[in-house]
């Protein structure tokens, strides 16, 4: 099978979402939120041998709180599969929150600054009752989009 590089597709689309095999593929999942909202984040499935995690932040410069720790304005949290409670974790919207942005990440991404490299990762977002589910690829050159589901 020929390698699939989502990073090249995002370059061609200038970072915009695009349709691939009948699904809308994006760099990240986004959902409108307000200060005071609480989200429950839970990893449902991991289909990759590479350590997976969730990169979550509030845009534009919102402050979120997770496990009693507050983010710096507009800065992300990394929620890692190896340290996240099995049942999930609550993320609170504290101040300046209008959009929550989430995407999958992996241990290989830890060596770069957040947001500097995409490593070909992509996400398909499914709207569900009271939220959304993200189907993510890892940094491997394939298109399975099941390496992390949260």
Question: Can you put this structure into words, describing what you see?
Answer:
- By secondary structure, this protein is mainly beta.
- 5% of the residues lie in helices and 47% in strands.
- The chain contains one helix and twelve strands, in the order αββββββββββββ.
- The protein has one helix spanning 6-12; strands spanning 18-20, 23-26, 29-32, 38-41, 45-46, 52-66, 69-70, 77-80, 89-106, 123-128, 131-136, 148-149.
- The strands form two sheets. A six-stranded antiparallel β-sheet has the order 1-2-10-11-12-5, with no helix packed on it. Strands 3, 4, 6, 7, 8 and 9 form a six-stranded antiparallel β-sheet that branches.
- A hairpin with a 2-residue loop joins β1 and β2 (23-26).
- The radius of gyration is 15 Å and the shape is globular.
Q: Which term fits the overall shape?
A: globular
Strand content: over 45%
Structural class: mainly beta
Give the strand line-up of the largest sheet.
1-2-10-11-12-5
How many DSSP helices?
1
Q: What Rg do the Cα atoms give?
A: 15 Å
What profile does the largest beta sheet have?
A: 6 strands, antiparallel
Distance between the termini: 27 Å
Approximate helicity band: under 10%
Secondary-structure element series: HEEEEEEEEEEEE
Low-confidence stretches: 111-117
SSE diagram, text form:
Layout: H1 6-12, E1 18-20, E2 23-26, E3 29-32, E4 38-41, E5 45-46, E6 52-66, E7 69-70, E8 77-80, E9 89-106, E10 123-128, E11 131-136, E12 148-149
Antiparallel strand pairs: 1-2, 2-10, 3-9, 4-9, 5-12, 6-7, 6-8, 6-9, 10-11, 11-12
């Amino acid at each position: 099978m020929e390698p699939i590089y989502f990073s090249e597709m995002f370059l061609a689309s200038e970072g915009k979402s695009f349709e691939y095999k009948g699904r809308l593929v994006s760099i990240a999942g986004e959902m409108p939120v307000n200060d005071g909202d609480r989200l429950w984040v839970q990893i449902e499935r991991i289909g990759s041998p590479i350590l997976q995690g969730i990169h979550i932040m509030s845009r534009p410069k919102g402050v979120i709180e997770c496990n009693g720790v507050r983010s710096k304005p507009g800065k992300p949290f990394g929620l890692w599969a190896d340290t996240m409670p099995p049942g999930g974790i609550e993320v609170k919207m504290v101040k300046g929150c209008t959009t929550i942005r989430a995407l999958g990440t992996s241990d290989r991404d830890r060596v770069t600054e957040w947001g500097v490299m995409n490593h070909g990762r992509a996400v398909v977002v499914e709207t569900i009752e009271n939220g959304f589910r993200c189907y993510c690829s890892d940094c491997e050159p394939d298109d399975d989009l099941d390496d992390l589901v949260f």
